[in-house]
Specification:
With 538 residues, this protein is α/β, with parallel strands linked by helices. 33% of the residues lie in helices and 22% in strands.
Amino acid sequence: MACGDSVCRLPHRTLPALHLALKTSKITISMPASTQAPRLTLRFARLDRALRGDVLVVPVVIRQGKVVPPPTEGLPRELAEHAVSLAARHHGAKQPGSVDDVILPRKLPFARLAFVGLGEERPIKMADVRTAAAAAAEWAARHRAAKIVLDSAVLEQLAGSDSIAAWVEGAVLSSFRFYEHRSQLQDDSRPPASTLVLASPRGMTARARRAAEEAAVVAECVNLARALGHEPPNVINPVTLARRAQQLARRHKLRCSIFDERHLKARRMGAFLAVGGGSATPPRMIVLEHKPSRTRGRPIVLVGKAITHDTGGYSIKPTASMVEMKYDKCGGMAVLGTMVAAARLKLPRHVIGVIGAADNAISGEAYRPGDIVRSMSGKTIEVLDTDAEGRMVLADCLHYAEKTYSPVAMIDLATLTGSCTVALGDACAGLFSTKDALADALLKSGELTGDRLWRMPLWPVYREQIAGADADLKNVGGRLAGAITAAMFLKEFVSDQTPWAHLDIAGVANTTKQTPLCPAGATGFGVRLLVDYLRRSD
């Protein structure tokens, strides 16, 4: 395959439709799966007598256990009376997401009126708005309501101007379904709504519309990362992932370079090649670039681990652990989703995405415990555990990215260690950084978006655990502080001059339990976090 620093023209198959067709008052949001997947259409309208829908959703807050009656401006008199009656009988709940509804007479423009709780009357958090939106979407799916009308004026009055974007984000995220490999869709008992109408008596302002449109883009890119994360290893391997990345790059005007195994060898990426050497499918390094015109200065570089399947190599995983290893590519999928979002939002920032894709398999060509390999940096690594493969791939990718682009900041995402999951559970990802300013910016974006982080130490004392005996480094540092020693290993391949952050997303990249915003499976963690960080970076 003739690939290199120029765009490589790879064959590809049709990718799930992921576009935002902007019209005067309508946005079409395609779900990230191609097999007759449902579509969510976002509309803007005036809340008047002419507007119709399956349900009118009115956000409410709770005061002393009872609903605060919402304003009924713009509603037909009889509909307003039903709203007052529903408020009188509904006691609500302190937690956001409670739903109570009433069936309306046929002569009214809506089949149902539903109150969706934002929680107690207090400053409303955007996380509560997203949860309420997801609850409304789930309620609509359960009642097969295809067209949801939201009283956006009430939402803004209760939760502020940012709440419109948060609601749209929650609605789109909660409507994710992965239908790519289903032969029939009739068994879906809860199909998501097809239309969400944001309605206000005076119409939506241009600012609110723009915020809603951008929120839809970001949420759809999260769903892209989720969809790719769900793909099984017989469908997504390093080569097919490169093809999909290139098609997305063409569609969204990103520059794309694909490096095959010959080019990795030419760059002496021995650590990366060792991991992919045991598979019949060779590794690939995918480099995406978003560079708006008139952009100056050094780029921000995002690096993602994309192990399309991880057997553990000769340090083989047990069967139960191996089943979920299709999700070991989720760091790379977050980078891919972020790059697509940057292009679609036209962020005024030069951004590079580097994705290291490999299949960690077992064969006569696979690397073994006891092997010593030389990385691109020249440092040698003694392999003690072939299941510590992600850090090997990232070592070469980080070194390549820094030496090639001299970034103003570099952030990597990886499902790197089970130790991080043990330490932090599934509530947040681990953050390791060499610069306080970068760490603080990421922590802030994490709190705002819900992709939360917790900072961990990078003290020199941990370096002793990865000091090599017959080589410069060991690829594991023992059972103690496993997440930290893995981060210390990566730190060896980044110079002190480059602000760098490592996000260990092992505990949050996928979930076995359904949440209001996400079904079981890949979560798309990191996309919203990184987009918010890129927006705020100078």
